[in-house]
Give the backbone structure.
Amino acid sequence: MKRSGRWALALAFVAVLGFVAWRAASHQQQKKAAMQQTTQARELPTQVQAGEVLELQPLTLNITVPVNGVVQAVNSAVVKAYVAGQLRELQVREGDSVKKGQILARIDATEVDARWRQAQKQADAAKAQLAIAQRQQDNNLALVDKGFISRTALLTSAANLDGAQANLSAAQAAADAARKSVTDTVITSPMDGQIAQRFVQDGERVGVEAKLLEIVDGRQLEVQVQLAPADSVYVQIGQAAQLQVPGTSSANTGEDDLQPVQAQVARINPSAQTGSRTVAAYLKILELKADSNKRTPQLRPGLFLQGFVTTGQSLQLALPLTAVLTDKPQPYVQLLQRQASQDGPAPLWRVVQAPVVLGPQTPHEASTWVQIVSGLSAGDRVLVGATGGLREGTAVVIAAKAEQNSKSGAQTAPAATGSQ
């Protein structure tokens, strides 16, 4: 066979092999495309309800400063013993109501009464000495005019009269002090209120300045809070505050079944504490209004409250805290992205796990919202309901009217409460 014939035969063989390879590759691609179409056709999208999708929009949020403190009475008094002796007739106990001037107890007055009688007798004796000195002075005045005594004797009797008057004044002062001690043996209430503490028992012997009872007026309460240095510059007198009693959540719903305590900044300490640099502020508790859905808390001095002080407002992007997932090193949300090409009447969405940078948390009604610093934009749709964590790329179909509800919900969402 000639050389040209062998080359032609080789080229024909290579062409046949290329055609066979091309047909095999084409068949493999068709098979793969058919498998992909079959897989896509079998993918069932997850359906979510309208309330589980929120279209992110800027909201006017209140800027707040977190605070916590202890309830205390504006008016209180510690009743002490002003004389020493045995305590008698102490019958009031913690929780009893008392009125101003009400007798609370008595101290045995045997000793102080004896001292008062002694002082009174000394005053009577000084008064008698004054009378003698006065008569002598009157006689000397008559005698000196007739020349029977010298002027020096008259001056001596006048000095004796002045001394007798001074002795009488001192004796009367001592008698008054002794009478005051007798009066102090009767312990009376200095104010209207309730007994908060009882430090002694009936029949004990007490000393001077010994604590007997503590009385508080529960009609006017306030909360003393300590403000951090960075927060103290934003808090001003007259700003509103909202507080809660920790640990009062319902075991069934997990929500607080008590009304929030409304308060107002009444006073701010003009100086910071030396060690911690914190500033003390006093929140006046306002009168609570009746609410049929929640109970009214019974506040008492000593209770611990926590909450926030509203210092201003700002326009921010925020989401419910439950919409933020934290099972990865960086917090993220389930963002819905609409597919460009799709079949069927309902729009198809894909779940995308979008990392976000969170700002301060924002109390809002019975839930907590959090500010979104970066990672999302206005108009983004985020899963905020009870759907749970979905795998990234999961197909999602929003139920009918979900888009309208999500938009209207974002536009009509009430102003939440933010934090500084």
